[in-house]
Amino acid sequence: MTSPTPSFEKYEFDHGDRVRVDWTDGNSPLDEVIGSVSGISRSGGDVIVAVEADDDQYPEHSIYGGTHDAAPAWISSYPLSQ
Q1: Distance between CA 15 and CA 45 in Å, rounded?
Q2: Sign of torsion, CA 50 56 59 62?
Q3: Distance between CA atoms of 26 and 6, rounded to whole angstroms?
Q4: For the whole model, what pTM was predicted?
Q5: DSSP 3-state assignment of 72?
Q6: Residue 72: which of 30, 19, 28 has the closest Cα?
Q7: pLDDT by position in tens, the chain (length 82)
Q8: For the purposes of burial, counting CB atoms within 10 Å of the CB of 76, is it exposed (0-12), middle (13-18) or buried (19 or more)?
Q9: Strands 32-43 and 75-77
Q10: Comparing C-alpha atoms, which of 45, 37, 46 is closest to residue 71?
């Protein structure tokens, strides 16, 4: 049985929203990634949110950058509410 395609309806963010991703457990030199939500999918039964990172977060010539896949729980709105 195939899991249903995930949608943004269940989450507090939507396609195109600016978000902060807690990336402390990710494979990158950053502890957080700031960017825009570019998609949502399912892999191995888990929901995966694609976040396109802002270009200015990485040092020049870094091998990192681009799209980061994140669990929905790692994502919060940006800028964070005061």
Answers
A1: 21
A2: positive
A3: 22
A4: 0.84
A5: helix
A6: 19
A7: 567 889 999 999 999 999 999 988 877 778 899 999 999 999 989 999 999 988 888 877 877 778 889 999 999 999 865 4
A8: middle
A9: unpaired
A10: 46
